[in-house]
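notes to self, project folder thing:

trying the whole complex as one job this time. last attempt i did each chain seperately and stitching them together was a nightmare. two parts in total, labels are on each line so i dont mix them up again. if this works i'll redo the older ones the same way
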Amino acid sequence: MALDSKIPKGPLAEKWTNHKNEINLVNPANKRLIDVIIVGTGLAGGSAAATLAELGYNVKAFCFQDSPRRAHSIAAQGGINAAKNYQGDGDSTYRLFYDTVKGGDYRSREANVYRLAEVSTNIIDQCVAQGVPFAREYGGLLDNRSFGGVLVSRTFYAKGQTGQQLLLGAYSAMNRQIGRGKIKMYTRHEMLDVVIVDGKARGIIARDLVTGEIERHSAHAVVLGTGGYGNAFYLSTYAMGSNVTAAWKAHKRGAFFANPCYTQIHPTCIPVSGDHQSKLTLMSESLRNDGRIWVPKHMKDVEAIRNGSLKPTQLAEEDRDYYLERRYPAFGNLVPRDVASRAAKERCDAGYGVNQTGEAVYLDFSAAIERYGKEQAHVKGLNENDNALVQKLGKEVIANKYGNLFQMYEKIVDQNPYETPMMIYPAVHYTMGGLWVDYNLMTTVPGLYAIGEANFSDHGANRLGASALMQGLADGYFVLPYTIGDYLAHDIRTGTIPTNSPEFDEAEKKVRNDIDKLVNNQGTKSVDHFHKRLGKIMWNKCGMARNAEDLKSAITEIAELRAEFYKDVYVPGTENEYNEELAKAGRVADFLELGELFAKDALEREESAGGHFREEYQTESGEALRKPEYQYVSAWEYKGQPSEAIHHKEQLTYENIEVKERSYK
Amino acid sequence: MNLKLKIWRQKNDSEKGRMVDYDVTDVSPDMSFLEMLDVLNQELIEKQEEPVAFDHDCREGICGTCSLYINGRAHGPQTKITACQLHMRSFNDGDTIYIEPWRAKAFPVVKDLIVDRTAFDRIQQAGGFISVNTSGNTQDANAIPIEKEHADKAFDAATCIGCGACVATCKNSSAMLFVGAKVSQFALLPQGQVEATDRVLNMVKQMDEEGFGNCTNTGACEVECPKGISLENIARMNQEYLKASLKG
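result (full assembly):
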């Protein structure tokens, strides 16, 4: 099967407008006759559900959480990009497009990214109209800040809680439609299969997580906004419940899975403290606006810091290695995430890590506190040389910008980051890979769509900071509602899809069998036992640096672990009740398959690009070495086992951007 | 350190619950409270006993899912954090810790420590929104400047995570802080003015129908709110309510 990305013809800047003018529409009266299922209520799913309901479709929305407001988009901290150019610093749609394609290491689709940049400005307008309280300047206008990999200030934010505020905006838009009866909301429900009738996605099988009941739901189209699969690594910044199950079941029903190996490992997270650790906490990239990253220059100081005889604040300026500023003078501490993460790993692997585990670097705010303090003293006409005053004023500015993040850090680590530098280390944070979709966001299964992090389309091999929120909302508010109409226009006379067909019978039976197998397994090891072991394989062999040998052994080890899981997992309780272990078991079973495909994909890609770094392919200075013959999207077709998956390629062409070495020096 | 736990166990909303004793050993002070419960659950699973059900998801204090009443306080002994952000260094070796679900008529128990908070969603559905369709043609985001002080206060109100600690801690099981926060957020913004009258009336009506109690200005909610939502928001809601009632 040849992959058709369905990119509209014509000049880049006109593609989306022309496409919208040419596609089919469904008239308002007919929309009432059409049902759409949306799985996941984060920024992508929530915004899509609200918008489709506003348009008049009958929406059924599903989330595994107890409320749509709790989807993990809520945890996004730093901000959302938009090419508004409010700062007059030279931003434009083209520049946002260019930065995103370059940031993605020339592995994303030009037309999709341009559209994303184009609708970015609408998102901010829409959110302000909904009452999202973005940060403002004293003049009452919206404030901006900078994120990694760009040279302009285009990031809109609400302190360190931007994702929360945007999600609550989408949640409020959903609530309006739930109140009107246009969205029927199913909380604490987990999708366990997609039902395909006559080659089209026509419904889902879901499990009510409270009663354990297996339900059939039909619709004319199914949309997955189910997020990423970073929890395959066990430890990550994802929520505990984040999972790949919906996307993986779709994959098993025919949706190709694209670029699974493209994973974002975020440079600034709180380091692991012990074996009990259940998750990792992100410290927003926005902190790199003001924080400087360093390790000691000399090994003797590293040792002194580790044994407690030297405090980091006592180390003289000339004995510190601000390694990002040293290696990347043009972008300094604001290099993209993949570059910053690898640089931290490089220093720690060389032995310069500053905590007991040797896996931490400093993120230091003392320079910013002094700079802001002096500025405030000057503005207020106070003594700029009064150090205590400057410190006090500077800390107030920092608290105003990042207060909640500093508080979060202090609660976890028990150190005050206003007084001593934060310790940080990279952690799994986002997956650029996901279900393959065409320009209309449709997967290779007709009528099955994937939006937000669940698809692969916009970020290439590395996502820039503050672009996930942009993409989730762009897909849900401004792209899918148009493109899905083109497909649904053929369904106005179809009528309600019955749920008593053989296809629904078969899917439900399969779901029940899978559950029975887990519940009746009577093994000896808990679900977490297997999840942790999978995580270790993924982190050690498919993490920040990969090589052929490790990847080959990862493939074998994961397949063996999967076999052991089915033999020896123990799931307490029954299927007819609230049973978190059962839900987790199903998710881990899917991670155990995805993990193998992930390693296989990483092995196939014999180049380094963005978040995918193969040790065999690097430049002399240790930067990622891209290879032109790999300028394609890998899309995998399911054939029974991950090892048998068939590799399809979508060639990427760049007509509007010159493909260059990605340099931040 | 070693701890004694007394945990509320309840099979479902129709059966009676009771406190059950557990011992946990070798707890590290760097563990989060929920990680300590993970350790207990792993031990229970190994013994083929049923693990303790509790709600949790983001484990970084923002999703509002976790909801534990620890030693008689919502989210435990520390202020301005959620249970998932609470670390074991707040406890001492040999301590006995009581762990219970939120207790309120409007939050029925689902299982063990999990309660049903959909009443909160229904209150939001009654009016917690601005009626603007998604079009891409709304006016430019900077068309209406908003005084920074108002924008900041709206933000502070909007940081509510909907966890329900305010209700759990209130002797009247009142949801006024939760509702007041949403009413305030929109009352402070120009975009929220058009529907202000209906919003406050409808949300308060729904709040009453769900069986939440009234506010008697004790202020416990403000103390226990993990996001530090201020009582000022209840005052603003009362003001909005009075204004709306007079309008009719």
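what i see at first glance: Chain A touches chain B through 80 residues (CB under 8 Å).
need to look closer tmrw
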